[in-house]
Every structure is written in C-alpha cells, then in structure tokens.
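dude i think i finally got it to work??
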Amino acid sequence: MRDLAWACFSPPLLHISRVTERESGVYACTPQLSPERAAWLARLDRDPAALLEHLSVRPTHRLGVYFEQLWHFFLQQDPETELIAHNIAVHEAGKTLGEFDAIYYDRQLGCHVHLELAVKYFLGLPRNRGGGYSTNRREWLGPDRRDSLAAKLDRLLQHQSRLGDTAAGKRRLAALNIITTRKEIALKGYLFQPLSAPPPPPPGYNPACAMNLWLTCEQLDRHCAGLDTLDFLILPKMAWLSGSQHPACTEKLDRYELKAHALARFVKDPHPLLISAIDRHGLEANRFFVTPPDWPNHGNQ
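look at this
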C-alpha cells in the first residue's frame, strides 16, 4: 500500500512544463491526495486483498512493471478515472513502434488520456575538475551507467508520448473507439548527488523531491559515522519505491558490516547498492547509493 501511495501521489521528479515546449501538449499527471483518496488508501491498508489480487495476475521482478501495475490499479479503482487499456503494443510493417502504458478516461476533464509511466534513479556526476558546473541532464546517470536523465526524458517526450500521433498509433486508438487523447507523463524517482563536489540539480528539478546522496565505498565509514542511525539495510530493487519500514528486520547491518558486504559485492558485481538508513523505530531515515571506488568509470555494462 505504501508503494501504491508513493507511485501515484509522491511529487514528480521534474516539472514537465519546464523541460518541454509549451506547445508540445504534454502534461504532468499529478493526481491529488484528496481526503477521499486518503480514506481509500487507509481501507487498503486494513484490507489489501484487492491490491494483492491485482498484483498476483502478473507477478514480476521488474521494478518498472511493478510501478506500472500500481498505477493501473489506481486508475481502475479511482472514481474520477476509468482505465480503458494498458500495455497496448503498436506495430507497423512488422516492427514494434512502442506501447501505450495506459489509456484512461478522466471524468473531470472529460477526455481520454494517454499516460506514460516511468520510475527512475539518477546519480549526478561531480563538478568539473576546473571548478565549473554542468547543467546538462546527461550528467545524471542511472546506477548501471547506460541510462541518463537526458536520454530518458528525450524518449518520454519525443517518442513514447507521441506514439498516438503516428498512423499506427491512431489506428490502435481507433480500435478502442478513441479519436484523440491528452498526453500525460508520470515520472517518479529519486536523485542522488555525490558526497563531494555536487553538481546543481538538473533543469526542471522538483524541489519537493528530497535530494539524496551517493558515495563510494571508501567514503562509507565517514558518511555513516555522521548519521543519527546505527542500522542499515541493502534494499533489493523491488523495495526501491517507498520508504522502508522494518521494525523487526533481521537483515539490518551496522556500518562495518555494510562496508564489508559492499566491498565483497563489488568484487563480482560493480552495480551500485541502494542503502536504507534505519532509525531506532525501524523506519527509513534516509537512503543513499554506495558505489565502487571508480564509479562511473568502472566497466559495469
């Protein structure tokens, strides 16, 4: 339920209106957490059977798919929306052009909406050695280094959200008796600045999203010693959405165990680890990535 609430009602990662042309016709999807929706979440918290049944239809170990499933459930359940279709592939000349993440009807706006969904995590590169800062979104990389904020944003705005403008996309929508759609994007996630020489936030950054940190395993001792927490948890990827709650977790590590685990892990797998710092109540106080010493130059392809 916490993941559902975070997926649908947490602040968007970027202000879409500030990173796209006004005439593009692409809008942010930002449903408000009204008292009615808060009451719905509270009922789910007491009895999550409907949500669990929804997720069991298509079990997944992919975080992006899980994120989409949470949104589909919300669009199905919310009185203000009607989910028409989701994950609808569009083909042309034997090739797949893409897929509609979700098509829904917005009862307040009185129109059909093509919604593209994405959850992303980006680590900012340290400032240039000469002292200058880069404001290029390409300086914000995904944990595996092959993804960047610039590339993802470009794909969302120039390809995924425009799928309904293609001839094949229009035919696919017509099969659903839909002629036109409003274009919306829900981009959620977290940004992580380096512990040393942090760059400024990327253009369009939404300050309502907390800025986190990333650090190398060599910086781990000093960073953890300065935190008002004693326990740490390495988050599996499917637990990367909402803040952790582990009051009785047996997998907590102290900072010495965490460093030893990270060093051993990076010998065989150089992908950064997402760490949750746990307070005395078992709640997540903050989160950070820890990386190999030479990230992002390490060959973690």
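The helical segments are 2-9, 35-46, 49-56, 63-77, 149-160, 167-174, 220-225, 255-268.
im so relieved honestly
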